[in-house]
Every structure is written in structure tokens, then in C-alpha cells.
Amino acid sequence: MKKIYSLIAFMAVVLTACQKQPNVSPAGYVKTGVTFTLAQSDYKLLDTSKYPSKSFNFKSIADANTYIPLILNAKEPQLSNGSTAIVTFTLAPLSIVLADSTNAKTAYTLTKDDYTLLPGNTYTDFSTAQILSWLPYKYPSPLTNQLAVLSYTYFESGATPNAGVPATDAFLYLNGAWQKIYRVSAAQYASVGRGNNNWFIASDIGSSTTIPSYINTFLKADPLVSTTVKTGDVKYVNYRYLTTYQKVMGLTYDGTNWVINATQSTTSFLKNNGTWIPDPTVYLTLSSADYTFIGTTSAGTTAARANVAQYKDFNISATTDATYWSDTDLNNAFIALLISKYKSPIKDQIFNVTYATYYKGAISNPTKTFTYNGSAFVIKPKS
Description:
By secondary structure, the chain is an alpha/beta fold. It is built from 14 helices and 18 strands.
């Protein structure tokens, strides 16, 4: 009898093992959003051969975009595609050691023959693009962090007289390429009482905060910088110290000021096809050309399309207006525009579209949010 029971029990186990089991997702495998600040333990999730695992910071935004996805994969493996992460991290203080900082070795005035070093050039002036192309001919074997403070005739079509204007600009050989860097101007020296010689003096160097404070003020007051600056942006600034030296200081924008100390920065990431990538969210404010394009689509009525192409706004005043745009019409117009402008969207990518509306004489600028679901652009429901 015992043998019979044992056989029954064995058959039950075999039958159970042969039954097809349901697919169950791993516990906690979810699509969600996380927000956190990297702790030292998070940096240590990186391979020990990667410098942030020991420094607990990143040298640049580009490095953060490279290493944070690796940290996210290790820290939040349960998050599925479409998940987002808002990560705050530390940017290291910028540090640069020039190959040579003496004025005699770094400052140079171009001669007539210098201009002809650039192949095909027959003029004795340069645009910014031309002088950047010229630098490798003048300095074929530059040293890392080599500085060149060049005086030359600057010409830019439509921006300067035909004869050009005298200019002195600073160029730095950084990360394998020459780049034009910011240079303190005569007017800026004068604004802090250093206009007699256009250089900083010994007492300025004596304080660790004086020159950084001056340069912060200069950069914040310069509209060419202040109108486009973003948190985490970096500027290398050339200034002269006494008659002897040309110096370069690296500063990072912390959201309020340009600083030389370590700063905190925040970046968003999206998990796509199993990989974390920097947040690809698009912020699109319709241009005149965009309104014109919408006028060529099939969205809305013929009268409404002609009206938006002419006036560059959408009439939402009254449903009885021949030029009225309904909410559905607007969605169709923006989807047509997104299809035209973005040929290779990624799944779950967000597109914020800001546009102008006309309502009984008043202009407003609302925003609609769309997402790409893998096959089509669709309006994103409000959460």
C-alpha cells in the first residue's frame, strides 16, 4: 500500500512539473520615475577603474551623461523602459595648468605673412572660423593646454567694416582641439579700476576670491553669455596679470553665479531599449516657418489653415468662427508638425509644444505635451 501512495505522489510531482507555468514579471519590475542625489556609495557602483568611483564627482556634464547611466543600471535594475530618473550630482572644480603662462610666450601679433599660412587665403584679415582653421598651421604640434593670445585684423561679413577691425582674442588647445575662449576686455578691466594697464595686480591675486568675483560679474553682465547660459555650463576665461603673465581661469555656472568651487547639477535620464540615456525631451516653441508648414497640412479647415499661416497664431475664440481651431484640430496640426520635424524619435520621448492662441483679442502661449509610443505621436494625458 505504501508503494502505491509513493507512486501516486511521484506522478503528481511529474504532472505538476510538466504543466506550462504562467510568465510572471520579476517582482518590482516597474515603469516609474525616481529622483535622488548621488551619494558616495552610488559613485562606488562604478568600476574602480573609472575616476568618479574615487573622486565622487564628474569633471564635466559629458562625463556625467556617460557614467550616470552605468550607476542607474546598477542602482535601479528593476526599472523598465520608459522610466525616468532625475539625478543631482557633483561637478568637480575646474582646474587647468597652462603649458606656458608667460606673456612673452603666449601673446603674438600676426604678420602679413602669417595670414597666407592658411591655404587659399589672400587677405590680411581673419574671421573667427578662419583663425581657428589657421591655428594648426601656425602651431602644428601644440602642447596640452597651450594658450595663444593673438592680435590680428578681424573681419566678419556684415558685422565689421570691409577693412576689418583690430582684435585680440584668446585661444586654448584643450582636449585635442583649439577653441576660442573668453577674454577680459579693456572695458571690463576699467570697470574694476584696472583700466590703466588692462591687467590685474598683485593685491588681486592675494585674495582667492577677488578675481573670481570680478569675472563672475563680467560674465553675468555680458549679454552674449547671460542670455544663453545654463546650469553646469563652463567658461575658460583669459586675463592678464601684471606685465608678465597671461592666465586662464575655469568657472562653472551653478544656476546663479559663475564659480570656481565644486557645484551641484541636475540632469534627467530616460530608460529606452534597456539603456539609460540623457533625457531627450524636446521643448519646441513654434516658429514662423512652423505656422506656415501647418498651413499646408490637412489639420483644421481650409480657412483656419490660411489664417494660421498668415497671422502665426490659432484662433480659439468661438466655435462658430470659420477660422476656429478645436482641440482635436490643434492636436492633429502638432502631430503633423512633429512627424515632419523629427524623423527618428525614440519610444516614450516627450515633446512639449508651445504655441500662440488668439482668444477675443488676447494672445496666450499654452503648451501641449506629446509622446512617441513607438509607432506614432500621441497627446500625453495629464497626470
